[in-house]
Here is the input.
Amino acid sequence: MTVRVAATVAMAYGIRPAEVAQIPAGTNTRNYRVTDDGGGLWFAKVYRDHPTLERERSAVELAEFAREGGALVPAVRRTRDGDLVEVRGPVPMSLWTLVPDVETAEGTLTGGRWPAVGEAVGQLHRLLAGHPAAGPVLRPGAEVCDLPGNQARFERMITAYGSMPELGEFEVWAAEACRERLGVFGRLAKLLSALTELTVQVPHGDLASPNVLLRGEKVAGIVDFQPPKVRYVAWEIARIGCDPRSLLLGWDAWLSGLARLLAAYQDAHPGARREDLLATAVVGCVSMLASTYPLAQPLDAPQEMTASLETYARARHEAALMLLDRLDDVEEALRDCLR
Here is the structure.
């Protein structure tokens, strides 16, 4: 594959690669680090399926829109023909400037990284509020999550685990976690019903910690946008602010960090509604507990199960239940820090 990537980079982009190496990251794409003959560094995102290329192109367009507004997004390189996505060469791909010497935000939001991420995400949402696909509007907060549909999925999963002839250690734990989740659905419904109207707009779409690049205590880049789709702002902030790995580093440190993240977000996006920011922890908690991922993976995609995914599943479950029991403390702390 590296030979085909090199050929595509040369043919479509006019760049002569000196070295191509696969990066062990990415689920829907294969990613490669390309060093050209002048020492320049590039990030090649190779797409698996041609039928999805229009969707991928719209995601790249959203990233370019954000970058042109000043967001911390790596530059995409257009092909010789001016396309954002190369579809005619040996492999379909998009090519980006590579951001060197960075790490992702997976479990590493500490110290000054909290406000740095808040500022970067606030700036991003402020810019994307002007995207032509849709401007910000209000929707009932209760619609942020489809609880009846998720409850039915958990019930089917419990039945499926019960019908398996033999369960491994993780499957036994996952089945019990599903039952625990069902046991709190009544509490989740009350939390959703208490939410006010919340803002929806076009956001990043997948603002999980692997897609936030850090260099020291600064944000160096935001990557891997999804196609433009209207989503809840509070849900997107919760993706990064309520990451279970950061939460489990220590309750007090996490709560202080989240407050600093939201305050910096508000400074970078003065038009943001306080109600959306205050709802972040509730939306994050409900979204985690109502989600079947990755508890469903042994049933739906056993080939994707790894030791790290199992560890993440346990951390997500533990963190979400902890957050559920202490939401009153979180709300009080956030009210004190937000204007």
About this structure: The two ends are 53 Å apart (CA to CA).
